[in-house]
Design brief:
heterotrimer; A mainly alpha (374); B alpha+beta (367); C alpha+beta (165); B: alpha+beta; Cytochrome-c3 Hydrogenase, chain B; 13% strand; globular; C: 165 residues; alpha+beta; 3-stranded antiparallel β-sheet; two-stranded antiparallel ribbon; 20% helix
Amino acid sequence: MMALETNINNLVRLQAVPPDWPGGFWGHWVFFTVVIIGFVLTMVMGVIYIERRGMGRMQSRLGPNRTGPFGLLQPVADAIKVLLKENIVPTAADKLVHWLAPVVAFAPALMIFAVIPFQNGAMLADLNIGILYVVAISSVSTVGVFMAGWGSSNKYSLLGAMRNVAAVVSYEIPLVLAIVGVVLIAGSLSLNQIVLAQDIPFILLQPLGFFLFFAAGCAEINRSPFDLMEADSEIVAGFHTEYSGMKFAMFYLVEYAEAIAISAIITTLFLSGWRGPLLPPWLWFIIKVLLVFFAMVWTRTTLPRIRIDQLMAFSWKFLLPLAVINLLVTALEVLASPAGLPWVVVIINLAIMAILILLWSKFFFKLGWGRIEV
Amino acid sequence: MALKTEPFVLNLGPVHPSTHGVFRMRATLDGEVVVDIEPIFGYLHRGVEKLAEQRTYTGIIPLTDRLDYISAMNNNFAYCLAVEKLAGIKVPERAEYIRVIMAELQRIAAFLIAVGAFLNDCGAYFTPFLYMFREREKIVDLFEMVSGQRLTYNYMRVGGVSQDLPEEFLPALRKFVDEMPRFIDEYDRLLMQNEILLARAKGVGILTKEQAINASASGPVLRASGVKWDIRKADPYSIYDRFEFDIPTGTVGDCYDRYRVRVEEMRQSLRIIKQAMAQIPSGPVRAEVPHLIRPPVGEAYARIESPKGELGFYLVSDNSIAPYRCHIRPPSLINLTALREMVRGWKVADLIIIFGSIDITVGEIDR
Amino acid sequence: MKFERYGIGIIKGLSVTIRHLLRHPTVVQYPEQRLNISRRTRGNELIWNQEKCTGCATCAKSCPLGAIEITTSTNPVENKYAVEKYQIDTGYCIQCGLCVEACPYAALYFSYNFECAKYRRWELVQDKEKMRETPERKVSGYFYPERATKLPRQTLLIERITEKD
């Protein structure tokens, strides 16, 4: 207990005073709401562009390059196209649920950004339970997805939605456990405090935690290789098979907004958020977010998709035990050196990560073949 | 605790991203598990066999292009062999070599598509598919050079090939043969040992030796099950007895074996092309064949090892300018009959990759 | 199966894709960047030489789709057939090239053009006037090697891409 307290005291000493943002409570609120919506929408366009161009180049082609200079306006053109499309609702669909689903899915994706610091203290709400809020809010999107799958009255949609619920429920646990390691070191749940605590980026102190969080995060937002909720070669488009026009655009937006959200959380938790030399903090933040997103594009380009039972096995038999061990190791380390973790821990943790992954892949983890005799 | 669940019917296709054309399967699912499937044929039926009864023997060649449009050269080859057998036509030496080169190039092209599409079904988002298409493009360029078309070549004729090779063909081919192994290695690096692919494809959709033989499967599907059966060796047609090559076989007969066998066969095809390039003589490329062939009354069956398996043409002649009956043995259709055995008990995602690993072309199934 | 290879396969695959990011893309920007098509291209039009044609209709007989329509009348003065009507419905034509090969008098060729899209179905029917050889309607070298040598060399992907690694 003593150790923890000293640790927290250290952090408090380190913390800089947040700059005074203009306006009172409401001025702050309006300013950041506008900033967040603007940020998410621009970033979605940016990452769609990066994804399409980057993937194109990795696949030995060019990607969109006709609309505007270097094809920069392609996302705009896509948005206009998709908004002008006819809105089709299947006859057998549950109209209200079908209509409500994209909204339910979209709102939480935006709300995550409320607690993400773009700069020191530059956030809508500096919640002292910030990361808990993120975890709670981010799984609400699943409700929207399941509503979409159920409301469409389409078997492909239902299969996709079922897969999504199963994936999110099981991946939430390693995700949270990976976060807890970070929280232990930082000694705070507030995202701003976590960033301030990162004199050494936590990716070095928590390499295993980063790996677990990245994998679980990818699974939670349906990025490849865990994109089997909208696996186009199996279940056409999963939960949004029956969506068109504006509603489809919302789902598209959710997909990328969630990807940005996970990138932003990874940036904040593991890559020391907005901190960095020379460049202004917000620019560092965006650069890091884009780098994380690029890693997601990279894996999407390369890796095949895993099967639903393997997805479950991967979560429960691989990620979860490793996350628990990681948590234990981190707790011991924090206990042993309460005055901030020294550089030696980096090497120790890297070694532990290597050993654990080797052990688990060799002896404990078995991807089931999934054959069920009928 | 076992939950009692109710099976439901999922209609896969005819318009579905991974049914390789307009194929339809009615799958009965129990949750994610495939209980039963029922393939439904006929969405691309064009009546090729009936149409052939009204065409001249030469006029059927463009029709055969459109059977298995991914390997049009092989279809031409099989058909021309059947007519030559029927009419007793001797093919000049150079034409034989050209045919072999074309058939093997086409085999590589078809396997590139098969492997690329299979990996795409596994979920590797178009990357292997586009890489493979880049290599296929090089082959298609060569075909365009000799025949003037890029998909439906219509290059082989009864008694030879339509035209001699242009002089720039052999240097380009040599360059291709030299470069290709490096690219095949690169694709192996890309996904061959990928853990996710291994987890997805290894041990999935096993077709045992007995099942494969009983289903009369042929081609890579049969060889992946461990049967060393290749018509190029078992019943050498054309001049295949002059070349040295191995028959790659699998051990288990799962999706991964089928994938590996195809990749290995590409290497073997390159070997054959290399030998053929070294041996190719000069001379005429087309035997003296009348414009309207009237084969004597009789029947003939010629078969070749097409990329999909044993492709056979059965022709009956009544001494007129058109065949009395033309029957095609499409390897895709026969291989597909084993599908139900293979997918039962697997998941929906496995159904897709098992189906992809059989490598069908709907144009050939429905004819 | 076990996850035995510790992710080495995955890392290998990732290295292949990232290396492609730095390579030159294979694609061609079509309307601006054009490749030379094959000298033996079977273009979307056919070219007919009225002087050489005797009206024997071998082409029409060899056409598997019956897309060639030919009407002749006898010319007793010169003791030969006069071709009254010669037209090809290129909407039916599958560019198989059997007519070009069948012509005993070398009067029928393929054109080198491939951008022959039309707005109306009937515009696809080529009559006598539309089948002349003109500077715009070049003759392809299909089945006529001596003509092929005059055409530009085909661009090959294998020669265009020079991989360095």
